[in-house]
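Hey, can you fold this one?
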Amino acid sequence: MEYISCQQLSDFFKGAADIFTEKKQELCEMDAKMGDGDLGLTMCKGFGELPLLIAENQEPDDIGKTLRKAGMKMASLVPSTMGTLMASGLMEGGKAVAEKAAMGPQELSDFLTGFASGIQKRGKCQPGDRTILDAMQPAAEKAMQACAEGGTLADIIKAAVQGASEGVEATKQMVPKFGKAAVFAAKAQGVPDQGAVAGQYLLEGLARYLA
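Sure. Predicted structure:
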C-alpha cells in the first residue's frame, strides 16, 4: 500500500479499535495497580467509536480536518485524562497533515510526530516522566528515521511500533510524576507504565491495516 486516502481512514483506525477491545481487561488490571483502573475502558470506548466518528466527520480530500473534527468529538466522548490526551494527539496529528488528501510515508510520520506533540502539550509532560509520551515520542522518532531512509507505510509503522516497544521497556526504570501513579511510585519499579503500553497497542493496532 502506497498511501491511505481520506476515505480509508476509518479502516486504518479499525485495527486500533479491535486491539483495545482485546486488551481492555489487561489494561484495566494494569491501571488498577497504579491508577483508577479504567484505562482499558477509556481506550476501548474512545477508539471503538473513532472509526465511526471519522466516517461521520469526513472532509473529502482533507485528512487533517477529518482527524481534527473526529478528535474533538472523541474528547467529549471520553473526557478522562487519557481520553483527553488521545483526542489531543489526534487533533495535533491532524494539524500536521492539514489539507492533505492522502497519507503517504511522510504524512504518516508527520501525523505520529504531531500526535506525540499533542500529548506533550496537553499533558504538560516531558520524555522521562513515565507517561504515554515515553512510548509515542520514540515511536515518532523511529518513524521519521524510517521515512528518511525511504521506507514504505508498512516500514514506517513497523519502526514506530519498535520505538514504542523500546520506550515501554525504558519506563520500567522511570518514576511516575503525575496523578495517582505518583502516589504509588514505589510500586512502579520494574513495571512498565500502563499508558505507554496503551500507546504501543495503539500503534500495533494501526499496523494491522498495513500488514
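The mean pLDDT is 94. Let me know if you want another pass with a different chain boundary.
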